[in-house]
Amino acid sequence: MDATPLQLIERICQTVIPLVAIVGLGYVYARRSHTDMSVANRINMDLFCPALIFSVMSAKSFDLIAHLDLAIGALLVVLGSGLLVWPLCRVIGVAPKTFVPPMMFNNSGNLGIPLVVLAFGEYALPAAVVMFLVENLLHFTVGAYIMDHRTHPMALLRNPMILATGLGLVWSLLELPLPMIVATPIDMLGKIAIPLMLFSLGVRMTSIDFSNWKPGLWGSIIAPLSGLLIAVPATWLLGLDKEQSAYLILFGALPPAVLNYMVSERYNQEPQQVASIVLISNMASLAIIPLTLAFVL
Asked: Which residues form the signal peptide (predicted)?
């Protein structure tokens, strides 16, 4: 992975600029024309993302055991970030239910997956999906419990992404064949997910204001810092190789997921403050992510 400074800068630009371009396109388009992404987002969460998850996990190249340590690392980063941040909420003056979930649940889907693939190549996609699966599963279990202690566990079984994860695991572990006539449309649907996530993020940014800038500013600092404080020692603790260490460190530096805003709206948990945290943190990641890439590449 050694490279000259010029090659390193070129690689970082090749990784970050396509993401910024699609997000920016979504932002510009939505500024010029009223854009309601609610239906597209629901289809993406219910169909395209599950298709991506199943497509990757059912592929012959997906080795669950090979990514087990990485999955444990992602688990430590998500839960460890929450434990680090929770005591700080009183100091910052923000409710834990408002501030802790965005610090725990990062943008491993619409930013993390394309970022890892662009930085390390298509062969890194299974690793990116593993980290996304861990974060997403925790978001719909631990995250749901944080927001509402009355969340029923059976509701999880109706979540398409969790269903796709379970089915993909079965397919992978049993090494079941998947006919091309079935695999091809699933793969095509899955490829819609990432660019649609990025475009949707750009559209979402047009509806967020800066009236709650203080929590957003704190979040832009604490989100990557708390993630890295867990990710870096976790690479040593788990004995990850150089590439997996790079994946986990990059995972730890990711900003909060847009889904945090959607969840806060659903539970009426100060959505405007959460929106500010998500927006400002994602804007700050334009500086943080290149620095992290420079460190791990």
From this structure: none
Helix axes 49-57, 180-205, angle to 10 degrees: 140
Main-chain phi, psi angles of 178, to 5 degrees: -125, 110
Domain that holds residue 221: 5-296
The phi, psi pair for 36, rounded to 5°, reads -105, 110
User: How many Å apart are CA 192 and CA 194, to the nearest integer?
Assistant: 6
Total domains in the fold of the chain: 1
Of residues 107, 97, 73, 88, the one with CA closest to residue 145: 97
Coil, strand or helix at 58: coil
Q: Where do we find the tokens 């970082």?
A: 12
Give the whole-angstrom CA distance, residue 200 versus residue 22: 9
Per-residue pLDDT for 102 more than 90? Answer: yes
How many other C-beta atoms lie within 10 A of the C-beta of residue 182? 11
* pLDDT value, residue 12: 67
**Residue 133, token pair as written in the block:** 């699966």
Q: In this predicted model, what pLDDT tens digit does every residue of 147-193 receive, in sequence order? A: 877 766 666 677 787 888 888 888 887 888 889 999 999 999 999 98
pTM of the model: 0.81
Bridge partners for 106 per DSSP? 256
137 contacts 162 by C-beta, under 8 angstroms: yes
CATH of the domain at 79: 1.20.1530.20
